[in-house]
């Protein structure tokens, strides 16, 4: 067999299908764009949905790609099995209504067996087919596959719900008897079963049905091909590796981890091998994901990143690595992927910084988790329990990052077990919550063939004019039917030429009117979108019937259009200013350009300081005041990149692109409309900056008239404040506010001192009234005109003087009440816990609380219940 690197194998696959007329699609970002059904891009076809459901017609119906993907639904298996990964690459070839089964099967066999390509022995290949798919079986036999190497399996039908579906054919490679991990008569010992010998390398899906909302399967108007070949698996075959981890995709990280570990070596014992594999796998996933804009957090994909980092750290500790180390693997990952993903290595410093920060944070959390675990063990033994319950094990996992296996190991050392089924129940609840959050959207749309069939050429001329006379009406869609004459109401139409911009790249669609040949208004344009074949399709509210073939006068609302243009050009200035001020790692994560404001989302680790935000705003306005010409060049993507144009992960670029340049300050690929000179923007003002997700910040801003109005309104507010403060000149307002703050601080300090003095005087009476509650002593009391700070100070005094076993104090006024409970240290050891007592009595003040075993507090909204709370505390302690 050929000796090939992972990079050579990937390129060979893409070259093969390029020779077969396929366009090589670049790997998309791991972060899905406009797809709420996915947390991550999890397959090659995930980026092709718009082509398969017919919402967009590709320029070439034949496509191929190597798509980076993430799946974490079975993260617990990563490292323990030969082939489970979080990040993986899926090689695929796709046909949208072009070739079908015969060509897909013939080409797959050619790639795998031809000496020019993979050159595998055909006798080592086995194929599975859907029993009713006699064509697939016939075509496999036609290319030379022996009938006894073709296996019928009922599960070979690809169906993810509504949308395209169909039978599939899986290809397995026989690794030989050395890989046999099952007995000859084991029911799973066959190609397609759960075993290590026959390795699935490719799945070819024949999409030939529409799974309808009525749960029926109707023939697709255009049949599709969707295939997936796991690069990691194929590399393991070429590199004679027993598992995917002994390949050039993972070994560099494993060897680096060996250097960092406490003299540990890979491939010496099973326990350490699992740790090495988990670290290598997770290092790859977090490095690539952070490079694509994901950042650690407590929600969504940010939570996945955080979990992977923590799982890797815990496994590093198993190898004797007790300091931050994962960030040191980032450049190693970048080097393994450099041939196809050079941006990962270019961003290594930024990615390493994010990882190091998260490692340091988790090491602190891990210490807290160990304290909790030790307390759990202590409590269990004190109560003669032998099992750590499921919710507690899940809390250790979810809050502190303890894998349940680690909890089990530590528990075993302490002579305890873990309620694993109870843990799984809590885990499933979390998965259900996550699934529910994304269940509102469909997975893939049913093909809308009506628009696909409209292939008339339509030209957008809005870059040059906003007024087009004599535009021919080519198509009318009314009630999901093509008609020659509309009846009125809402219709969709396509003209042979149009000045109306179709919504794209965050810029909203133009608005305007349609006039007939006599100059009378017949419709309002309320929306414009791109039809599957690229035409601008207008949504109209009609006042009169429209006739196909007639000519109409199309007029864009110039004021609306102009305001959108100003805001769009401002987003370009904002984008580059953010890069200049915050660093080149910032990437656009979305935008919205409306006539009255703009919204710009970007990836950034950490908050944006007020100082940096001001620098950004000043930089944008500097470009506006410098009156810089905005120019547009139409060229090819390669030339555009040489010009320095910034490309977005989320955009697919055709043969021709528009490069928009604002002098030498900003150069971007953009199909939107723009001002001719930055002076047209007038003024730029940031309205707000906030976080909207894991590592994603949002700026909202206004320009021109809206910016002037914002400043004018703020000026009026400032004048009103100055008047209220009795300041004659606005410039003196900050000074007066400072004086008032100083006065308030002084008065607050005096109030607190008086409260403390009063509380201390009341406490003398309270401390002298010690009661007996069973075998314990307790002091209770209600302190008037005090706050929690005073109650805590009194509790400290009580503890230093050792006045009783338990102290319960309360205070309240209006609709607010507070309680504090303190327990002497020797009584905590005897089993009396402040937290238990506070929970027992806080209901009397209609509140709740908690705390440590020796100190707890509660808040409520019913001060009238304080007396009952004191009595309840005495009763609770008496019964102990």
Automatic annotation (TrEMBL):
Residues 737-764 form a coiled coil. GO terms for molecular function: alanine-tRNA ligase activity; aminoacyl-tRNA deacylase activity; ATP binding; catalytic activity, acting on a protein; transferase activity; tRNA binding; zinc ion binding. Its EC number is 6.1.1.7. Binds 1 zinc ion per subunit. The keyword Transmembrane does not apply. Keywords: Aminoacyl-tRNA synthetase, ATP-binding, Coiled coil, Cytoplasm, Ligase, Metal-binding, Nucleotide-binding, Protein biosynthesis, RNA-binding, tRNA-binding, Zinc. It is found in: Cytoplasm. GO terms for biological process: alanyl-tRNA aminoacylation. Consists of three domains; the N-terminal catalytic domain, the editing domain and the C-terminal C-Ala domain. The editing domain removes incorrectly charged amino acids, while the C-Ala domain, along with tRNA(Ala), serves as a bridge to cooperatively bring together the editing and aminoacylation centers thus stimulating deacylation of misacylated tRNAs. Catalyzes the attachment of alanine to tRNA(Ala) in a two-step reaction: alanine is first activated by ATP to form Ala-AMP and then transferred to the acceptor end of tRNA(Ala). Also edits incorrectly charged Ser-tRNA(Ala) and Gly-tRNA(Ala) via its editing domain. HAMAP family: Ala_tRNA_synth_B. This is Alanine--tRNA ligase. It comes from Lentilactobacillus parabuchneri.
């Amino acid at each position: 067999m050929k000796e090939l690197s992972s990079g050579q194998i990937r390129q060979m696959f893409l070259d093969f299908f390029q020779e077969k007329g396929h366009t090589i699609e670049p790997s998309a970002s791991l972060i899905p764009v406009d797809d709420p059904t996915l947390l991550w891009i999890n397959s090659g076809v995930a980026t092709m949905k718009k082509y398969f459901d017919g919402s967009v017609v590709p320029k070439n119906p034949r496509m191929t790609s190597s798509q980076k993907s993430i799946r974490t639904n079975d993260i617990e298996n990563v490292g323990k099995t030969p082939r489970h990964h979080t990040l993986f690459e899926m090689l695929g070839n796709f046909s949208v209504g072009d070739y079908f089964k015969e060509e897909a099967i013939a080409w797959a066999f050619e790639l795998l067996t031809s000496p020019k390509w993979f050159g595998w022995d055909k006798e080592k290949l086995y194929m599975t087919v859907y029993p009713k798919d006699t064509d697939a079986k016939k075509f496999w036999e036609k290319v030379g596959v022996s009938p006894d190497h073709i296996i019928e399996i009922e599960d070979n039908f690809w169906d993810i719900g509504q949308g395209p579906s169909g039978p599939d054919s899986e290809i397995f490679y026989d690794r030989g008897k050395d890989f046999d991990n099952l007995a000859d008569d084991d029911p799973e010992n066959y190609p397609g079963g759960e075993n290590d010998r026959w390795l699935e390398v490719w799945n070819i899906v024949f999409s030939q049905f529409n799974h309808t909302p009525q749960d029926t399967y109707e023939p697709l108007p255009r049949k599709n091909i969707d295939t997936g070949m796991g690069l990691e698996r194929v590399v393991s075959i070429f590199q004679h590796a027993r598992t995917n981890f002994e390949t050039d995709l993972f070994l560099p990280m494993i060897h680096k981890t060996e250097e960092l570990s406490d003299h540990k070596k890979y491939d010496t014992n099973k326990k350490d091998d699992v740790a090495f594999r988990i670290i290598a796998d997770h290092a790859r996933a977090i490095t690539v994901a952070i490079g694509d804009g994901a950042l650690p957090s407590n929600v969504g994909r940010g939570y996945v990143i955080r979990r992977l980092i923590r799982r890797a750290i815990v496994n590093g500790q198993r190898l004797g690595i007790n300091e931050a180390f994962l960030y040191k693997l980032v450049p190693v990952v970048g080097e393994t992927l450099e041939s196809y993903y050079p941006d990962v290595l270019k961003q290594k410093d930024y990615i390493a910084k994010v990882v190091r920060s998260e490692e340091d944070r988790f090491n602190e959390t891990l210490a807290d988790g160990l304290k909790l675990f030790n307390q759990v063990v202590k409590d269990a033994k004190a109560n003669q329990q032998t099992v750590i319950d499921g919710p507690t094990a899940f809390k250790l996992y979810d809050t502190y990052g303890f894998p349940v296996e680690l909890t089990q190991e530590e528990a075993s050392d302490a002579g305890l077990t873990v309620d694993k089924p109870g843990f799984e129940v809590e885990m499933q609840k979390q998965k259900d919550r996550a699934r529910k959050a994304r269940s509102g959207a469909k997975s893939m749309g049913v093909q809308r063939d009506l628009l696909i069939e409209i292939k008339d050429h339509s030209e957008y001329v809005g870059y040059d004019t906003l007024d087009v006379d004599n535009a021919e009406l080519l198509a009318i869609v009314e009630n999901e039917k093509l008609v020659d004459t509309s009846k009125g109401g809402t219709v969709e139409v396509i003209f042979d030429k149009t000045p109306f911009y179709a919504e794209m790249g965050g810029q909203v669609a133009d608005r305007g009117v349609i006039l007939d040949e006599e100059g009378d208004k017949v419709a309002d344009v309320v929306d414009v979108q791109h039809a599957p074949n690229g035409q601008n399709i207008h949504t109209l509210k009609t006042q009169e019937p429209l006739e196909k073939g007639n000519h109409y006068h199309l007029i864009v609302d110039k004021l609306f259009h102009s305001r959108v243009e100003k805001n769009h050009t401002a987003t370009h200035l904002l984008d580059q200013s953010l890069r200049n001020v915050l660093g080149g790692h910032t990437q656009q994560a979305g935008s919205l350009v409306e006539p009255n404001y703009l919204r710009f989302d970007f990836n950034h680790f950490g908050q944006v300081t007020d100082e940096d935000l001001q620098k950004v705003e000043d930089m944008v306005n500097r470009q506006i005041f410098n009156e810089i010409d905005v120019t547009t060049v139409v060229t090819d993507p390669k030339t555009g990149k040489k010009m320095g144009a910034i490309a977005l992960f989320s955009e697919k670029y055709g043969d021709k692109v528009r490069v928009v340049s604002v002098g030498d300050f900003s150069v971007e690929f953009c199909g939107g409309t723009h001002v001719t000179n930055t002076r047209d923007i007038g003024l730029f003002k940031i309205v707000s900056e906030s976080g909207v997700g894991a590592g994603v910040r949002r700026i909202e801003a206004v320009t021109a008239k809206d910016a002037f109005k914002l400043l004018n309104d703020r000026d009026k507010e400032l004048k009103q404040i100055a008047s209220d403060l009795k300041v004659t000149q606005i410039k003196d307002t900050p000074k007066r506010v400072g004086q008032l703050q100083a006065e308030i601080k002084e008065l607050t300090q005096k109030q607190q001192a008086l409260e403390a003095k009063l509380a201390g005087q009341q406490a003398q009476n309270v401390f002298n009234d010690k009661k007996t509650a069973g075998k314990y002593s307790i002091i209770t009391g209600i302190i008037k005109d005090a706050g929690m700070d005073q109650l805590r100070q009194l509790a400290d005094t009580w503890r230093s003087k050792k006045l009783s076993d338990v102290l319960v104090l309360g205070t309240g006024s209006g609709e607010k009440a507070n309680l504090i409970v303190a327990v002497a240290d020797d009584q905590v050891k005897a089993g009396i816990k402040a937290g238990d007592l506070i929970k027992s009595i806080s209901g009397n003040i209609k509140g709740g609380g908690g705390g440590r075993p020796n100190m707890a507090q509660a808040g409520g909204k019913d001060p009238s219940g304080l007396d009952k709370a004191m009595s309840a505390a005495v009763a609770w302690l008496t019964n102990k």
